[in-house]
Design goal:
The structure is a homotrimer of 463-residue chains. Chain A is of the alpha/beta class. Chain A contains eight helices and 40 strands.
Chain lengths: 463, 463, 463
């Protein structure tokens, strides 16, 4: 089996600078879902027909091992798009799947079942099919092409577009999903035989069905597992609908594997995320990129985890953002913490509210519970970071690193001026500015004299 | 055409101190939607009948160019409410729309279509209608008034309330939306002719329909475009339902204009917001008041933008709050930033996590990436604001301003005591307290001696 | 009436270390809902049959006044589970409700109605029922046991499981909710008479129905008020569905009592929360534990209130977390504030963005509007806390307290080193480190000399 994915369309209704098929669903281009589903449908050789903004689309999928074909005429129609890729199947004695790049909901399972169906018909009925058309029954078929069949059979005679349908044809509720499998030699024959539409000048793929049927190359309909599979994404509203459906499907996948998800409609989990069982995810949380979360960890409401590895029994409070970082078992983060860019939070450490950790190693059992900035630093085991502590890692020209030994105490509002090394078991008094290395066990203070001037406060009173 | 909006009801089921019609949907009183829809229905002369908490309602709509009428008797009933406004239509030879102030879902389009219908019936059938009743077919009509018609026609004979309906009448699924257009002279005649209900003493508008029908003033039914239009908001649960429907309608409006909205159910966009195409809005974001967002900008999850102007290609991260401010092209905000009250963030500036900017000008390419408070300040191009920097703009009596010249470097944890001017290209060492003006190119430091006392840290150890 | 709740199952499909019935819905174990609903159904004597992880389940419900029974054989089946509790009803001449611990949606009202039904049948028909089976009609009954009845009556003949059902039986849409009331003596007789399944060796409760029916102990079906009541929670997906339904039911309860809830699908309100009327709750807010909120208060988007008491007319902005604290009338919190662990915010105080308050008393009209940490402190009326102020309450060994008198002014970035007392009307200059007591009306400053070195800033320029 081979597959041709059609991604040449203008996507006018998206009103976008960006090619339609690159618009994202849960962090991936919609076209990625189509290609992934085709692969899950056990088809490895895939051609992508591009046209509108071809370079951008090809660039985005250059590592996906696809064969690219360019449709020259943007108004050529769907059959012309397939013809653009004729070198891909002209000498192929097998079947070819044709699917639109804006059909991210057609499942791999449905694609496998369509192939299976062809083999079954051959095996049990001895009929070599010319093609299979994926269909669904919709309560309201308005806007879709209707599937006309030989009464009492699954033999498709032709597909009629909404605008060309008679009143009677419009009453048909079986619609065309725009997904076909054709026998390649007959497909080629058909493509060379059909004529452009008199109304639009376009060559329509649906005419291939009618051609084959008339020629005696039997085409059958095959029902999608779920009617929603036929939804094509032509507007951003449909993009949102498709995203909602894919979201719930992904979440159901994880709940079946032992993950609790509260208020699934509000939760964002991207396809490359990986979760162990007994993870618990609260409303509005977002897991993005290649994030992994270990057993027993809790992701608090509204927290956002991007391309990060979270260990086991980690507790992430509300509204915590973790990006490109690693958090080990039993750490406690948030609420309102931000951990980013290569940070590594070791086992049992606590990072609390309004604390930012950037590209730093936070040792085991460190406490940094309030208002602090820790950047380009390495903190040993059990270090205590007071409220208001800042690691001044930037001197206006470049970034410098700091090292803090185990169990050091960094008093509140102190400023750690990098580059600097602070010894283990040292004690930095609150408000100090530390710009020299500190030996182990030292006490460090930089504090001006406190002057208390009686009664003078009165002059500031204006109350 | 004129319109009478009835907003005199007690709204008992809301259990509120506030008049029911002032309860808000996406930041606007529900009555605002009714008036806006009537205006969109091409009716400019509008009377508002108030009663319960009349002053509050009139105050809220005093700038809307409405004629106010007061219903004296809170238990007078709907027809009595219309009679309160009789001076509005007693000498008017035309049609009058009557709609409830708690019907925010009746669209302007439906109101236009009802008028159109009257003109068409006159033009094509030569029938001058006495009235039109807006109706809908509901699968479960329980609780609604049922519309009784002459069999096989659209001629309405009368409307029967749920509680007065026979078993057979209850099976009717066509319900009364409580929206009517009547020919004014006949309406007046009917209002003077109908009698109060024996059960409640109220005068019912539905009796006008029966009166006209008997009198030979033909009343027809007209089907609402969407059944949901008939929902009246009598409880806060219905308020939530109406809000959900209006929310999705507004979002669909924007997606059709090229805006991407992820998880539309969770996104709040108020009616006065204005968006360019290729704006992308993430789950839980809220756009309020007269906010404008330019092309290519991204609104991160859970961010709240109120009465602000956001330029093009601005990137707003998660959980960022912008109020009454202006953000220019290419600025980067958040996550966890707060920009408020007349702040002006220039092109390319970055405002990061746990930073508050109040009534300040942030110059181009400024960096203020962590934990800072910038209030009443003007920062020139390229200024660097370190973590923990605070502009002390308040001296206990009044607020003062600060000025920072271009490319100045404000070291971490330094305190800028307003009023003060800091020159361009100056460098403030970390932890400094700056309470004097600083010339361009100066180096500034206020730092006590750092004392490092070996071994003394031990006495603080308790670990 | 007595009730037996079956909570011995393995819950294999949950793939969890935790017993299935302890998995939470809105902060309470699902089993809590079953027990609460049974109690609301006017049944006080309740037996709980445990098995899998029995100790954990009993521990969690040890204060609920239940009688515990242990099912020894984890594969004994539902009837074996009931037999485990036979001492609970063997000598009881009355009716026994049997319900599964994973059926949190069966309402107290339905349980009361089932009992009522038994009494009515006795009173009006003179029939003493052997049992009542709770049923519902589902459009798609797949997976549920079907209820087979004597045609034209409500007499149940037997219940057939999906896997054992004939094609014809599968077409029955009336399904078994797994909730029964049986007359205890006949139940016991039936339990001793039925035989283990040949396929699985289990004793099925559904066989009791068939036994009784054959024996002439009449069993009738009783329809649940809402079909959703029959949903059993066997997977975490069903847990999410049940949570969504319970959430909306709780929110509807509060809207009927005069609370406004925006976007109800996104709002989390736990069962023990208590709200006055005219409270307004914005999207994504969460009210947890025994939280109370007074009239006229506003809970901003995404705010989380846990086990706290919020007074009247309190305004809580976006993304504010309040835990185990008390907030008095008219206080203003957030956005991005965190109030925790025994904090007490008095009337009219403002706590603003990036401020943490821990175990402190915040006096009336205090202002702490930006970036501060207030821990273990008592602030008098009208105190002003500048940006960047930190109460250093921890010295590395223990926590200490601070006291600040009324109308004191704590300048920005100052550090208050506990234990310390700061007098009323005193003025602490910005950047001071206060480690001594300060008398009333004093002016306090600790500030190193500011050195301004002309031109020296240049050497730091690298721009």
């Amino acid at each position: 089996m081979r597959a041709i994915v059609l991604a040449a369309g203008l996507g006018t209704r998206f009103r976008s600078e960006k090619p339609k098929v690159l618009h994202e669903i849960l962090g991936k281009p919609m076209l990625w879902y189509v290609i992934t589903n085709v692969r899950n449908g056990k088809i490895d050789e895939i051609a992508l027909v591009v046209g509108h903004k071809a370079q951008e689309v090809m660039e985005a999928f250059k590592d996906e091992n696809l064969k690219f074909f360019i449709q020259k005429n943007p108004k050529g129609g769907t059959a012309d798009a397939v013809l653009s890729a004729k070198d891909f199947f002209a000498s192929y004695d097998g079947y070819v799947l044709i699917i639109n790049g804006d059909s991210p909901l057609v499942s791999g399972e449905t694609i496998r079942n369509m192939q299976q169906f062809i083999y079954m018909v051959k095996a049990y009925e001895g009929v070599k099919l010319g093609g299979v058309v994926l269909t669904a029954h919709l309560p309201d078929p308005t806007g879709y092409g209707r599937v006309l069949k030989e009464p009492g059979t699954d033999r498709v005679l032709r597909i009629v577009e909404e605008k060309d349908a008679s009143a009677e044809e419009k009453r048909i509720t079986e619609v065309n999903a725009g997904v076909y499998i054709f026998y390649a030699p007959w497909l080629l024959e058909a493509l060379y035989s059909i004529k452009p539409s008199r109304a639009t000048g376009e060559l329509y793929l649906t005419d291939v069905v009618e051609y084959m049927s008339k020629k005696g190359y039997e085409v059958r309909s095959f029902m999608a597992r779920e009617p929603s599979e036929v939804i094509g994404v032509n507007t951003r509203w449909e993009l949102a609908i498709a995203e909602n459906l894919i979201k719930l499907k992904l979440i159901k996948f994880w709940t079946d594997r032992g993950v609790t998800v509260h208020f699934p409609e509000t939760v964002w989990i991207e396809p490359d995320v990986s979760l162990e069982n007994d993870v618990e995810i609260f409303p509005g949380a977002q897991l993005k990129g290649k994030t992994k979360v270990g057993k027993g960890s809790v992701i608090g409401s509204g927290s956002v985890i991007v391309d990060s590895t979270i260990g086991r029994n980690v507790r992430i409070g509300e509204y915590t953002v973790v990006e490109r970082s690693r958090v080990e078992d039993g750490a406690v983060l948030g609420p309102f913490a931000r951990i980013r860019d290569g940070a590594h939070v070791r086992s049992g450490a606590h990072i609390g509210n309004f604390v930012e950790v950037k590209k730093s190693v936070i040792g085991e059992d460190v406490r940094a519970k309030h208002l602090a900035y820790i950047g380009d630093a390495t903190l040993g085991k059990g270090v205590n970071v007071g409220a208001g502590v800042v690691f001044a890692n930037y001197d206006g020209k470049r970034k410098h690193e700091s090292f803090v030994g185990e169990r050091a105490f960094l008093g509140s509002n102190s400023l750690i001026v990098a580059p600097v090394k602070i010894g283990s078991f040292s004690f930095i008094a609150g408000g100090s500015v530390v710009n020299k290395d500190v030996p182990d066990y030292a006490f460090v203070i930089s504090r001006p004299e406190l002057r208390i001037i009686p009664e003078k406060g009165k002059k500031f009173l204006d109350k």
